[in-house]
Amino acid sequence: MKKLSFLFCAIILITSCRSSQNKNAKKDVTDYAKTITESELKEMLYTYASDEFEGRRTGEPGQKKAIEFIKKHYVDNKIPSPITEGDYFQEVPESFFNGQAKASENVVAFIKGSEKPNEIIVVSAHLDHIGVSSNGGINNGADDDGSGTIAILEIAEAFKMAEEDGNGPKRSILFLHVTGEEIGLFGSRYYTDVDPIFPLENTVANLNIDMIGRVDPKHEGDENYLYLIGSDKLSKELHNISEEINKKYTNLEFDYTYNDENDPNRFYYRSDHYNFAKNNIPVIFYFNGTHADYHRPSDTPDKINYGFLETRSRLIFHTAWELANREERIKVDKNT
What we know:
38% helix; 15% strand; alpha/beta; 8 strands; 8-stranded mixed beta sheet; 336 residues; Aminopeptidase; single chain
């Protein structure tokens, strides 16, 4: 009996040790990327792009509901503000909008780097949309830019999980939700030109997300794609890193059509990344292209492809992770 008892105890001890080792096994970037799921993205976007938010027009009641929604996510996930404790709103005064909007707010959250906290990666998207049409139709802006907004929330949550596991990023990550994009890139310009929370010279790169939940007419039937704009404008190194990360983790087809200097759409100058680029901060603008529902009440959450949104969000997370954790900050080799 004593021998059996000893054997039984030994088995229990070995099993317990293995269980403990498995539990404490260090996770890697793919484990955190997998926490970005289409089900969570869908649940959030159906709220964020609902009629309750009244099209999120800058300075209007629906936009105020939007910023509270974003703030609550950060509070619930214990992701702090870089301003002061509990204050996630960077106030943009009415005077800054030149009569185009009432006072509004950027929303900011932050994960401090473990080794190089003064070097900042900015992940951005605009929180506003165009409001209610004259005929009463609510422009929900599910793709533009509800898709980018909730992508950032999921990306932030993944970084927070890594931090809690002791795998936090070496550089700091600023999650920046800007207002007033639809009326002239006001929120991002306020951040870069008036009140940068972190010095621009310490800002390593800006990854800007504006519409990543749909498929444009050009890619119907060949949908494993994403437009990238600006990745090679200021830093060839950033462009190469972006390509390498995509091949390693997501294998999307990168379409650089709109990156052409001669492209008549001039998208490089039409979203919030441009206010960083004009300050010689390398940028990538992630974009799925326009579609028939662009800036119409029909841009609704039921038309989002959540599988695509998941993959594209994971790509951006992987890219931010690489930029935050590599030994040297990326080099700027061109000027605007």
